[in-house]
Amino acid sequence: MSSHLVHLQLLLKKLALAFLIFTLTRILFYLFNAHHFSDVSFDLFVYGLRFDGVAIAYLFLPLIFFQLLPIPFRNKKWYQAGLSFFFHLGNFIGIVLNLIDLAYFDFTFKRTTTDFFGMIAIGDDFITLLPHYFIDFWYDYILLIGLLVLSYYLHKKINRKELSFRSYNIKDYGIQSLILGLFTGLTIIAMRGGTQYKPINIINAGQYTKAQNTPIVLNTTFTIIKTLFDEKLKPIDYYTQEDLEKIYTPKTVIPGNGLLNGKNVVIIILESFAKEYVGGFNDGKGYTPFLDSLL
Question: Which of 55, 147, 225, 263 has the smallest CB count inside 10 Å?
Fold first, then answer.
C-alpha cells in the first residue's frame, strides 16, 4: 500500500474496531433486556450502525484528526502512544455509557439521556445506593472489564507502535492534506447521520421499527450526545414569594390551648382526588366507604 495511505488504513481499522465494540454492546443490551421486545429481526442491528456512526464520529474525533494530521513525526512511537490514548479514551466512554442500560433499562424502558446525570446530582441518594449497585449489577463491571480487555488486545494487533520515519515534501503535504480534508467531510456527515437536511435524532429510530424496539436501534452514547445540549425549560417567576403569601398560602395555623386531651390526629392526603368521589361530601354517593365511615 502507498505510504500516503498507511495512516488512513490504520484509522479505518481502529474505527472498524469501534463499530465492533458498539455492536457487541448492542447485542448484550438485547440479551439482557430481550423480555421487553418482540418481533426483533437482524436488520435492527444493521440499522443501528447508522446511530453508532454518529456516536463514534463524536467520540473519536480527536483520534481522526491527529491520525490524519499531515506531519512527519506522527510516525514516532510517542505520537502513536498519544493516538492510542485517544482511541482507548473514546472506547472507554462508549463502553461505559452503553453498559449503563444493561441494568438501568429495566427501570426506565428507554435509552439513558442526560437527565440521568441531573437526577444523580440531586441529593445524596445516588451515593447511598452506590454500594448496592455494585452488588446488584456485578455483571456489568465484569462485562466492562471484558470489553476493555478485548478492545485493547485487538487494538494492539492492528496498531503499529512505530512507523518508519520519512521527511515530507510539498507533494506529500498536499496528498496528506487532501486525505485529511476528505475524511473531515466524511466525519461531519457521520456526525449528522447522513446527508439529509437535518441531523438524525432519537426520534429517527422510529423509521426502522416500532416504538417498542427503538432502544435496540439506538445506543446510549448517541442518546446522551443528542440530549447534552437540549435547552432546558427555565422557570418563570410571575410573583415574589412575599406576593404569593399575600394572595394564597397553604400554611394553616390551628390555635390550641396547649393541653393534651389524649386524642390522635390523623391527616389523610389524597393525590388528585376530587370531592365528588367521596360519599361523605355527597350525601353518601361516592366510592370511598371507609373514608365515609371516618367522616
Answer: 263
